Amino acid sequence: MSLTVMSLTALLVPTYRNMLGTLAGLLDTVERQAPTQAESLLSARLATDMLPLAAQLRFAAFLAQEATFRLRGQAMPPSLEAVAAEGRHAGDAPGSFAEARDRIGQALSHLDGLAGDALDAGATLPIAIELPGGLTFDMTGETYARDWALPQFYFHVVTAYAILRNQGIEIGKAEYVPHMFAYLRSTPAASAQAEPGDARS
């Protein structure tokens, strides 16, 4: 029996699009439930030594695009580096809700412009991740996608979700993975059990 192997493009691009859509939906929910608190929530944190919501949103938008440049062997444009810089400085300058939305929209537009095989040739590309303190991780494009790009991206998406949940925004797993409703088997029982906001955790 032959197995179909998912390409890097088929894995990463839809994943990034789905979860950026989650973040956009969460921002909609904030504006609907707590319109007068929306701007202040950008400075909310889970812990004092963690970055605020504004940073989590920007790093998610940044990471969804960074991988597409690394896996094509291209340098990141200054406009994308600026998004990362905004994330690093969000504790002092969280920006506005509209700007946070814009960063997510820019990331989605970038992903929409990629060809269906744009990242596939990067599977064997050598990729080095250099971190402060002299730490360098050497990987292939494939291991970079699996062990760095996706975990880092999900970290910021989940943290953004957790900040909003911690701040009293009424969200649940249905708001975290709204794209799953595209796969929902259409039965009365399933519909009754899958109302938005259920299965909060």
Order of adjacent strands in the largest pleated sheet: 1-2
Classify the secondary structure makeup into a structural class: mainly alpha
Largest sheet: 2 strands, antiparallel
Radius of gyration: 18 Å
Mean pLDDT: 93
Distance between the termini: 40 Å
Total number of helical segments? 8
Strand tally: 2
Describe the structure.
The protein has eight helices and two strands. With 201 residues, it is mainly alpha-helical. The chain has a two-stranded antiparallel sheet with strand order 1-2. The mean pLDDT is 93.
Distinctive features:
single chain; 201 residues; two-stranded antiparallel sheet
In short:
By secondary structure, the chain is mainly alpha-helical. Helices cover 55% and strands 6% of the residues. It has helices at residues 8-33, 38-41, 53-70, 78-88, 97-112, 141-166, 173-176, 188-193, and strands at 126-131, 135-140.
What is the strand and helix layout of this fold?
Elements: H1 8-33, H2 38-41, H3 53-70, H4 78-88, H5 97-112, E1 126-131, E2 135-140, H6 141-166, H7 173-176, H8 188-193
Antiparallel strand pairs: 1-2
Helix pairs in contact: 1-3, 1-5, 1-6, 3-4, 3-5, 3-6
